[in-house]
Amino acid sequence: MSPTLTRFIEHYKIAKGYKSRSEVISVALNLLQEKELFEAYREADSEVDEEWDVTIGDGLSDETW
């Protein structure tokens, strides 16, 4: 790891009250994992499944609700 990143992690640890650099890295990795999951859900949501639309269609538009 570069000295710049190590200094940043140490500064962040002190500023935010974390107990160790490992805890800071763990929090950062969890945030990256959440971001990846969010992007995967967004991609899945954007996929059009016309067969499913026919299955769940009840003749009512969203505006009816």
Automatic annotation (TrEMBL):
It comes from Crocosphaera watsonii WH 0003. This is Putative transcriptional regulator, CopG family. It comes from the Bacteria.
